[in-house]
Amino acid sequence: MLANDNTPTLSTRTLPRRPINFALKRAMDVSGAVAGLIMLAPLLLLVAILIRLESRGPIFFRQLRTGRNEVPFEILKFRSMYVEQCDHAGVRLTVDGDPRVTRIGRILRRTSLDEIPQLWNVVVGHMSLVGPRPHVPDMVAGGMNYADLVRGYEARHLVRPGLTGLAQCRGLRGPTTNRDMAVRRILSDVEYIETFSVLLDTRILVRTIINEVRGGTGS
What we know:
The chain is α+β, with helices and mostly antiparallel strands and 219 residues long. The protein has helices at 19-39, 41-54, 103-111, 118-123, 146-149, 166-169, 179-195, 198-215, and strands spanning 60-66, 72-78, 128-130, 140-141, 144-145, 162-164.
């Protein structure tokens, strides 16, 4: 929907009443995240060792993100930048050949392996396996605040943010410098909320796995 000034406007204000589906979703989140952490434990250990060997600093990168009902939480990722150049505010976008990114960091970002620690965020309830990707507070897109770019932007915060989502499955990934692409992401997020089902979550997870096997491009 477009406002009179051509600003996209979203109208979703409340969640569809499907309590059983949301209970099933949470059960799938916890079981899937725990299973993933167990199966990927050797890989997680290897990545942790490589990060420590290449550069000084912590293995994990923590950053404040906006969660369900706009409650902030700390997202967990493998550190992919030199510690003194990490952008905790999320203001400066990463570009191709960014000198802040370490060698192992480039691999982690290209394969989305830097996102795997977020399985822990899923276990503790900050995130879901599927949902709108969590943004930093006052997220900027297309050179302006997302909340100003899309009226009703906060509708995407009605559910837990996800490791992956409908927007990512549609190829709406990467930097948010393109205003049209940024708007399409939010429209996809709200479409997901309005049409949510456990079956839809399953389809998105399967599509995400297929996309990553073919070659991920970041979130």
